[in-house]
Design a protein that fits this description.
With 276 residues, the protein is of the alpha+beta class. It contains seven helices and eleven strands. A five-stranded mixed beta sheet has the order 2-9-5-4-3. Strands 1-7-8-6 form a four-stranded antiparallel beta sheet, with helices on one face. It starts with a helix and ends in a 7-residue tail after the last strand. The protein binds a DNA duplex (16 and 16 nucleotides) through residues 1-3, 32, 59, 73-77, 98, 115-119, 121, 156-159, 162, 165, 167, 174-175, 224, 263-266.
DNA sequence: ACACCCTCCTGGAGGC
DNA sequence: TGCCTCCAGGAGGGTG
C-alpha cells in the first residue's frame, strides 16, 4: 500500500518524465475514480494544461498545472505508470483491464492509472487546500520538532496506533510504517499518546523519521502491488522488522512477534520490547 | 472526544 | 479441482 515513502518515490519518478508535458487526451474508464469535479469537467479542464511541478503531501501526489492542481490518492492498490514517449521503461499496457484512467501528452508519452481495487481518487481543483487542507504536519518536516511533537501527543487522549494512522494528526504514515516506527521506538500501539514522557516522544519521532528515510532510500516497500512510476518494485520489504513477521523472532530480543488488531488494523508487536 | 463499525472493491488464501 | 468465505486496509461517514 503506498504510504509516504512509496508516494515520494513515485513523485520523484514522475517529476523526471512529466514536467513540461502538455495534456492531449484524457480517457476515464471508471468514472468513480474522479472525485471532483464531474468527469466531463475534469476532462475538458485538464485538456491543454501543462504539468509544471510534481510533488507530494502526505500520501497524496500533487501536480501543479498551468491553471489548476491535479491531486491523486492511490489508496490501496493504485499505480501511476509512465508509458511511451522517451522513457525506456518496459511498455506499460494502457489497455490493461485495471487501467482506469489514461492521460496522453502531446509528446506521445502517457500516464496510466492502474488500480485493481478502484479505491484511488483524482481531484482537479483551483485550490489544493480543498483536498489537502485538513492534513497534519509532514513527519520529516524539520519544523516538527521534538517539543512540538510531544505537545501534539499530549493534546489528545488516543492510542498511539490511532494517532499515527490519523492523517489529520500526521500526514503520510500507514499501517506498515506505524508498526515499524512503534517497534523501533519500543512503544506499545495501545499506549495513550498523552502518557508519553518527553524522552519517549522524542524516541518515537526519531524512530518514525529513521523508518521513513530508510524506506525512501530503498524506494518503498513492495509486498504485492506497489510499483514506482516505471513499474519497478521497491526493496524495503527486506528491511521490515515486524510487519508481516508474526511468529518470527524479534530482531532485538528474539521473542515471537505477535499480530493483534488495534484500531481495526492488523498490528505487529514484540510483546517483550513493546511492553503495554 | 473517542471507539467502533460499515462502505467502497478485488484477488489471494484457506477450509472443506 | 472448485466453490465459498474471509481477509487485506486508506479514508470518509455514521453511530454510540
Amino acid at each position: 500500500m503506498p504510504e509516504l515513502p512509496e508516494v515520494e518515490t513515485i513523485a520523484r519518478g514522475l517529476r523526471q518524465t512529466l514536467v513540461g508535458q502538455q495534456v492531449a487526451d484524457v480517457a476515464v474508464r471508471w468514472e468513480r475514480i474522479v472525485a471532483s469535479p464531474s468527469v466531463d469537467e475534469f476532462r475538458t479542464r485538464l485538456l491543454g494544461q501543462t504539468i509544471l511541478s510534481v510533488g507530494r503531501r502526505g500520501k497524496y501526489l500533487v501536480f501543479g498545472l498551468s491553471a489548476d492542481t491535479l491531486i491523486i490518492h492511490l489508496r490501496m492498490t493504485g499505480q501511476l505508470l509512465c508509458a511511451g514517449g522517451h522513457t525506456s521503461a518496459p511498455a506499460v499496457a494502457c489497455d490493461d483491464p485495471h487501467a482506469h484512467l489514461v492521460l496522453r501528452f502531446t509528446s506521445g508519452a502517457a500516464l496510466c492509472y492502474r488500480d485493481v481495487r478502484k479505491f484511488g481518487r483524482f481531484w482537479l481543483v483551483a485550490d489544493p487546500a480543498e483536498v489537502l487542507g485538513s492534513l497534519g504536519p509532514e513527519p520529516l518536516d524539520p519544523g516538527l520538532t521534538a517539543e512540538r511533537f510531544h505537545a501534539m501527543l499530549l493534546a489528545r487522549r488516543r492510542r498511539l496506533k490511532d494517532l499515527l494512522l490519523d492523517q489529520t494528526f500526521l500526514a503520510g504514515l500507514g499501517n506498515i510504517y506505524v508498526d515499524e516506527a512503534l517497534w523501533k521506538a519500543r512503544l506499545h500501539p495501545r499506549r495513550l499518546g498523552s502518557t508519553l514522557a518527553e524522552e519517549e516522544s522524542a524516541r518515537l519521532r526519531d524512530a518514525m523519521c529513521a523508518v521513513l528515510r530508510r524506506a525512501i532510500a530503498a524506494r518503498g516497500t513492495t509486498l504485492r502491488d506497489y510499483r514506482d512510476a516505471f513499474n519497478t518494485p521497491g526493496s524495503n520489504q527486506d528491511g521490515l522488522a515486524v510487519y508481516g513477521r508474526a511468529g518470527e523472532p524479534c530482531l532485538r530480543c528474539g521473542a515471537a512477534i505477535t499480530r493483534d488488531i488495534v484500531a481495526g488494523r492488523g498490528t505487529h508487536i514484540c510483546p517483550v520490547c513493546q511492553g503495554e
